[in-house]
Give the backbone structure.
Amino acid sequence: MTAGLTVSVVIVSRDRAPALRRCLLGVSQLRHVPYEVVVVADAAGRAALREMPFVAHVKQVAFDAANISAARNAGIAAAAGEVIAFIDDDAVPEPTWLSYLAAAFADPAVAAAGGYVRGRNGISFQSRAAMVDGAGREVPLDLAPDGITLLTARAGRAIKTEGTNMAFRRSVLADLGGFDPRYRFFLDETDLNLRLAERGAVTALVPLAQVHHGFAESPRRRADRVPRDLHEIGASWAVFLARHCPQARRGAVWAEIRAAERRRALRHMVAGRLEPRDVTRLLAGLHAGFDDGRVRQPLPLPTLPGPRDPFRPVPVRTDARAVLLAGRVWSRRRLRAAARAELAAGNSATLFRFSPSALYHRVTFTKDGIWEHTGGLFGKSDRNQPAIRFWSFADRVRDEVARVRRVRGFEAGMGIKQP
């Protein structure tokens, strides 16, 4: 662990206090030096902060409006780091996330950086490298999995960064005026990517900078990702297309978006997750939102001021270690107790707990702050593996260690505890 650029981690939270607590628990295990944490939250989120052991080191910004762009701008205003990183409240970073992401800014040409996002099973990727155009269409990019790739954007073709795993130089964000508050929760970061592209900015994509994103329930989306309301999606599309899509193409692109949302709603209906009347209601909301977005007038985005308060670093233990514990499924209580003891000692704890089965693997960051890997000894972890493969316990552990070693911060030749 070496000292690097000062980084402010900004977390926006609304209506999701339990998710925020879990996110902050993960953020507290980051090993980058130095970093500060800025939480922009409603009353419930700020109340949840009082339960966190490092609350004295967190900058708190009261914000109750349902507008993620304005909330992020409030976070930028409070952030004093040279680099500002963003993570969603329903996400958890790998312990090395910030170190990998911040390393990209060692090159003074880099204006922005983005990492990879793992989905609910903790293994499959939810998003990786991509470019995005003025119609919102994404094109995947094939990058080396363990390096930093610098890409220069051009007008109309931006390097995509995900809102839950992205970072920017504070000076660049301030000069751009931050995020456009007309985007109240959707397409805000894509708009920023395209505004950076207009300047020919350099974006670094860092595959090893990883977060796990859970898609927590919200007023707009159920826990199973079924939409509750599409009004703001429609509104954001109207703003986005008017800003970035050539006028001659807007009608066709909007027709494609409507058709895609209809197909998505119908898939949920066929699966029994929506009623036919829900599909009608959602699509009506999408159209009404688009009409709403069309009358949202462009706003001036003046240069953002510097922070009023100085940088407030989170204490990081320089002697902390990444500890691995492994055992059989019937040893869960003993393994978890040992993992909690490691956390109490200031270390991060990963627990491998395998059953004699072919169950698929999952990775979970528990409410205690333990990285817990579960599944069958003979089952898949990486979903490209064979459905069943016969392993010895020791070989399976070694294979899983190799898969996550660099993002979890395991040292070469580290021992495995089997309490």
